[in-house]
Amino acid sequence: MSKQYETVIGLEVHVELATRTKIFCGCSTAFGGAPNTHTCPVCTGMPGSLPVLNKKVVDYALRVGLAANCKINQLCKFDRKNYFYPDNPQNYQISQLYLPICHDGYVEIDTAAGKKKIGIHEIHMEEDAGKLIHDEWEDCSLVDYNRSGVPLIEIVSEPDMRSAEEVIAYLEKLRMMIQYLGASDCKLQEGSMRADVNLSVREVGSEKFGTRTEMKNLNSFKAIGRAIEGERARQIELIEEGKAVVQETRRWDDNKEYSYAMRSKEDAKDYRYFPDPDLPPVHISDEWIDRIVKSMPEFQPEKQARYVEQYGLPQYDAGILTGSKKLSDLFEETTALCGKPKKVANWLMGETLRLLKENGQEPEDLQFSPKHLASLIELAEAGSVNNQVAKEVFEQIFAEDVDPEAYVEEHGLKTVNDTGLLEETARKVLENNPGPVEQYKSGKTKVLGFLVGQVMKEMKGKANPAAAGELLQKLLSE
Length: 478
Hints:
The chain is of the alpha+beta class. It folds into three domains: about 5-290, no CATH class; about 300-410, no CATH class; about 420-475, Arc Repressor Mutant, subunit A, CATH 1.10.10. The protein has 15 helices and 16 strands. It has helices at about 55-65, 165-180, 220-240, 285-295, 300-310, 315-320, 325-340, 340-360, 370-380, 385-400, 405-410, 420-430, 435-440, 450-460, 465-475, and strands at about 5-15, 70, 75, 80, 90-95, 100-110, 115-125, 130-135, 140-145, 150-155, 195-205, 215, 250-255, 260-265, 275, 280-285. Strands 2-6-7-10-1-11-12-13-14 form a nine-stranded mixed beta sheet. The protein has a three-stranded antiparallel beta sheet with strand order 5-4-15, with no helix packed on it. This is Aspartyl/glutamyl-tRNA(Asn/Gln) amidotransferase subunit B.
């Protein structure tokens, strides 16, 4: 009988915090920007420059830690992690090893087998490194220090996950929680949330952990899922062949769906950590923690319950809308403007999610304003545009945030409410379609849809389909 294997997974998740300036200097953290323009002597590691801690970083780290049920180290310190790397300008990274700001927490995820707690070993603050750009043409590497010194928190989980599904549920829960806190936008494609996967396999029933590898370069949930499956299969194959799994850092290539070794795994002793002499310890008072607790937002479960009660939405709709901070904000702001919660929910869950999927985008990428969606809903409700036109106009709102009223005017898309013209067109359609008229009169009433379609065609889509249907029924019964 073949052996059964269990996968054991722990994650290190790096999250770029939403501060306007870097962790130890006043440079901008904005994404993009010409290379090396968001820099100063501190974040480029110039001799003699001194770091000054950005208090907002501590605020955000506390918010995330408290939301993740962590204990707080009210006296925490920064340490130097020493390693030489071209994108690391001081030749060390300022991080926290001995006294991280948060420890011993958990987040709860939903799995096929019910709820499960994933332990959080610690959360620490640190600075990001710069970015190496490899120029294939010139056969050289260039370094951009814009990202150097951008504040990060690293969330280190316990090895509590057993499948790709659990890993993705955990990451989605973390991402949603952090977005609700306003601590980061967590855009994987921009690198503001990055996950390294520590994975080992062992025989089912064994208490002893197998040898783990760490996989880097994972910038989408799909890539993470594929990397876990690939690495699990690779390790099982080695064990079955009687070979040893080597503890190392591997890089996942999502195009080739294959991971390859980058370097043997370092240990903490390899980094020669020591307390940073330039930064005093951080004292976190009870008052500071109380202030953070009082400023906590309404999280998804409470928001979902409120949507059902306040807006009369079904549980399912409320769950989808509150699953993304961006969608829930759009829903609330649009509803406040037009007062039609169910209609707003339908537009967001229908057309909005469809277009996001078609464009390979996330809700966080939405650019249109609540004002323009509310205005479109009001046009449709008043019968000024029919359903088909409303969808066409929404595509323009989605793409370019156009003003629907101006767009409808400009493109002559307003529904024609001229009853004389409608009747004239309906009579003409009945005259030109004797076959379907006979079918209708002999009891095949489904043919009415075809006749309504002909009226819409004649009036270039500007008729009200419901009015056209009523009028045709009236004319046919004469």
